[in-house]
Specification:
This protein is α/β, with parallel strands linked by helices and 383 residues long. The chain has helices spanning 27-31, 61-66, 75-91, 106-122, 126-145, 193-199, 212-225, 246-251, 273-291, 304-310, 321-333, 343-367; strands at residues 39-40, 96-97, 104-105, 166-167, 174-180, 204-208, 230-233, 241-242, 264-270, 296-298. It has two domains: 2-27 and 156-381, no CATH class; 58-145, no CATH class. It starts with 26 loop residues before the first helix and ends in a 16-residue tail after the last helix. The structure holds zinc ion (ZN). One of its GO terms (biological process) is tRNA processing.
Length: 383
């Protein structure tokens, strides 16, 4: 699809790298020496959550935040975990997870299916249904990933790529919000996670769809800063879509330029194409409630060349979240008002981390004896 629309780089942000049929080049030959500060995370201590010392009946603040967020623990996630533990006792069965560690399996899954379907049906309010759905997804992924995934890079511990990721500061005039679908939370092939791995959680903030603690925090910032400072990267079919160059005329206060007061908020919807529609609608409903008007959407004009470089196969027709961020930063770099922020270097930092992730995932597949060719794989079985 992208190839058919070379002029307009539509960003859907299928957050997962759906295929590994790419050839991974050495990062040096691909991108040259990195101009950004290569303060490798290898010099920083990597804190892994100590499962054995924790009270496994709930998720504590330290464990929760180690996955890439600064928010308090979502209360409904802990409620779901408590219910799962109670069910274990009631049914005298142990919670087990599938090979991806994100879904329940075995006898316990059968029991839990009945219980969560009944609970879901009992909720009459669609908002409550969504919150329960999200909390349950996240609770299961958290429990299944404990002791299995590295909390920073969301890869299996033996594949941890943290030591190869170089951190970089995002220009203070920019704030990225990763609005992530719960089904993409803790997925090894998610690429949105790279943004806070590189820029830090205060510059690239995770906001989980349906998790009130996250959504409220994000909207509090948006309300404070105003609609003109919030941009959603999404091809809005029902309204005018802006380009990056329009940002200046719509929200950049030239008189205040240089004072460092203006922060542009960019929302990247991090989910599959089908899921992203519901996520986008939820954002717009909230925007209309607050401002009586929808969020402004932008689509990118460039980025196709980058995608050709990274594109694993023809069916990967929409870009991944990290590539969308790279495209955004490169385009902003060419806007005069943003040109001094060194956004190209920040884009290269993400580009570098994406290469590292692709290489780690490929290495994993090869080690596990799985195909890395285009023909031999399906879109959703990367991990
Ligand atoms: Zn790691």
């Amino acid at each position: 699809m992208l190839l058919l629309r070379p002029k307009r780089f539509l960003v859907c942000f299928n957050s997962r790298i759906k295929s590994c049929g790419f050839s991974v080049k050495r990062q040096e030959s691909l991108m040259g020496p990195k101009p950004f500060s290569a303060e490798s995370t290898s010099s920083q201590p990597i804190e892994h959550y100590n499962v054995a010392s924790a009270d496994e009946s709930f998720v504590g603040l330290q464990e929760w935040q180690a996955w890439g967020t600064t928010s308090p623990v979502p209360s409904m996630v802990n409620q779901v975990i408590r219910d799962l533990k109670i069910l274990e006792k009631e049914t005298d069965s142990h919670m087990t997870f599938d090979g991806n560690h994100g879904r329940l399996s075995g006898d316990f899954k059968v029991q839990e299916d009945k219980k969560h379907r009944a609970k879901y049906a009992s909720l009459v309010d669609s908002e409550k249904k969504l919150q329960f759905f999200s909390a349950r997804q996240i609770a299961c992924r958290l429990l299944g990933s404990r002791g299995y995934l590295c909390q920073r890079c969301w890869l299996a511990s033996e594949d941890c790529m943290c030591s190869r990721v170089a951190t970089c500061s995002l220009a203070k005039q920019l704030h990225i919000w990763l609005y992530m679908h719960p089904k993409d939370f803790l997925r090894q092939n998610n690429t949105g996670k790279l943004l806070w791995q590189v820029f830090g959680v205060h510059a690239a903030t995770l906001c989980l769809f349906g998790i009130i603690e996250h959504e409220e925090k994000m909207w509090n910032v948006f309300e404070l800063e105003g609609r003109s400072k919030v941009w959603c990267l999404y091809p809005n079919k029902n309204a005018a879509t802006f380009s990056v160059t329009d940002i200046v005329s719509h929200s950049w206060d030239l008189e205040r330029q240089g004072n460092g007061d203006d922060t542009m908020n960019f929302i990247l919807i991090d989910g599959t194409w089908n899921n992203s529609n519901a996520m986008f609608r939820r954002l717009q409903d909230r925007a209309k409630l607050i401002w009586g008007n929808e969020l402004r959407c932008i689509s990118l004009n460039t980025g196709a060349s980058l995608m050709h470089k990274l594109r694993p196969q023809p069916s990967w027709d929409r870009t991944c979240t990290a590539a969308a961020a790279i495209g955004l930063l490169y385009e902003l770099q060419h806007v005069q008002e943003f040109s001094s922020f060194e956004l190209d270097k920040q884009a290269e930092a993400i580009e570098h981390s994406l290469e590292v992730l692709l290489e780690a995932l490929t290495t994993r597949r090869v080690r596990m004896g799985r195909s890395i060719s285009r023909r031999g794989r399906h879109s959703d079985d990367i991990v």
